[in-house]
Amino acid sequence: MKRYQICCIGAGYVGGPTMSMIAYQCPHIDVTVVDISQARIDSWNSPSGDLPIYEPGLRELVLSVRDRNLFFSMELDEAIENADMIFVAVNTPTKMSGLGAGRAADLTRWELSARRIAAVATTPKIVVEKSTVPIRTAEAIASVLTASGRTHFSILSNPEFLAEGLEQALKYLLCVHFCKGTAIQDLQNPDRVLIGTNTEDPCSVEAMNVLVDIYSHWVPRNRILTTNVWSSELSKLVANSCLAQRVSTINAVSEICEATGADIDEVANAVGLDKRIGVKFLKASIGFGGSCFQKDILSLVYLCESLGLDEVAEYFYWIVKLNDHQKERFVFRIIHGLFNTVTGKRITILGFAFKKDTGDTRESSAIEVCRRLLHENAILSIYDPKVQSSQILSDLGHCTRLDPLELNQHVSIYADPYEACNQSHALVVCTEWDLFKELDFERIYCQMEKPAFAFDGRNILPHERMKSLGFVVYGIGKPLDKRLNLV
Ligand code: NAD
Ligand code: UDX
After folding, report:
1. How large is the ipTM?
2. Domains identified in the chain and CATH numbers
3. What residues contact 351, with CB distance under 8 A and at least 6 apart?
4. What order do you get walking across the sheet with 29-34 strand by strand?
5. Mean per-residue pLDDT for 453-479?
6. How far is CA 187 from CA 22, 181, 272, 297, in A?
7. For the whole model, what pTM was predicted?
8. Name one GO biological process term (predicted).
9. In this predicted structure, what is the pLDDT of residue 164?
10. Is 178 a residue whose pLDDT tops 70?
11. Distance (Å) from CA 371 to ligand 2 centroid
């Protein structure tokens, strides 16, 4: 009997991990992940398991199913034609030019994928919208797919809520090693799976049931929500906006703390212990990063503007504005703290990823901090345990428009945090990597120029101990160190 065939278009942060999970949990299904990038596919197929993305546990997961019932391939047409169900997990970044530039999601890759499916498919397909897309995209895609008239397509919306990095990734991915323990299994299950469909169309409802069955292999049925397709598309944008809003709220409060002497961690704890509010996502920082938050809020803003809901658009837009303000404010603290000039001063950047336990730098706040410091002619020494040097140089080259030669004169990247701190005027923590908490600060203090400054953009360093060693310390939303040249 023919095995059920799934194809996923897009072998990125979402396509690779989610399809690996389906292949692992459903050994009776063959899953083929395709992409237009030969480098990505080669990397997913790498014999040494040197995958294109770093996620704790992902390598083990992929290696346990790769070439069993999980395949990575460049053969798009073949995979589409063979598939019963096609996930589309291509990137949907913010549009950079044209109508809606800087706000709307760019759906070019989505539409290209849909046109490819329409051109190739000769048998009925279930097409699953996995990418984050604006509301009513499924409707537009249905028009593209059905225009060919060659076969029947059922369109489902199934937004992905996976977060990158250890804590959340473990929750979602690592049933692999621990699936027998009930407590751990609870921890590792996704909060919910959302499937949107056209509830008035019996074929779509049938397709939805097929997808529900697939997820039911490891997700409790009561956590699989089914809604109409527009609710599903909108929920994804709203979920990310709510999460980002909490971060912007606590970051706004961090500025009040610095102006009054209150302590942001104490305030966050006191507020978060109210069960209605909750403690998660109240960690003050240099601002949120990552490929999703800003893009999805802007997409929601654009939707509101298109609907003439100007006040609502403005409300959501302020989440992003506050985030920009937080990054700017942090850099001003560094410059003012260092006696109003950083020209020619060596500054150590600890962490470049947008959060810990990932090598992803998309929209990382570190990029904006570095850009501004380079604009002020600082000399940067950068250390991140997981981000490749080439990625850091590419990000900084892109945002500063400095050519590689100029960049090399201003930026050095180190594989060792102590070397990165040598002869530095200031440490600047941009990512909350755990290893930064354990550094030998006595050793670092001896290596640094004096006065030695530490600007902790994540409030993870041992501030009191560092102060006793002689460091002048700034923490986000912390009472200001009197030795810091700040007001
Ligand atoms: P990504 O850039 O890592 O991966 C997208 C992949 O699609 C790339 O490898 C690209 O080469 C491929 N691609 C683009 N056009 C293609 C085409 N026409 N045919 C075949 N392959 C094509 O992006 P991602 O982070 O995986 O995000 C994918 C979608 O999922 C986005 O809409 C994003 O908003 C959403 N999302 C991402 C996350 C996350 O944590 N990264 C979480 C939830 C949702
Ligand atoms: C996010 C959503 O959490 C996830 O559900 C969605 O599918 C994709 O977008 P991700 O971007 O991987 O996931 O990371 P997340 O943990 O949400 O953090 C986003 C940014 O906010 C990071 O830069 C993080 O450092 C920052 N953040 C998060 C804070 O500054 N403070 C917090 O309290 C929480």
Report:
1. 0.98
2. 4-235 (3.40.50.720), 338-475 (3.40.50.720)
3. 366, 383, 384, 429, 430, 431, 432, 433, 436, 458
4. 70-73, 29-34, 4-9, 85-88, 125-129, 153-157, 193-197, 224-228
5. 97
6. 18, 10, 21, 28
7. 0.94
8. glycosaminoglycan biosynthetic process
9. 81
10. no
11. 22
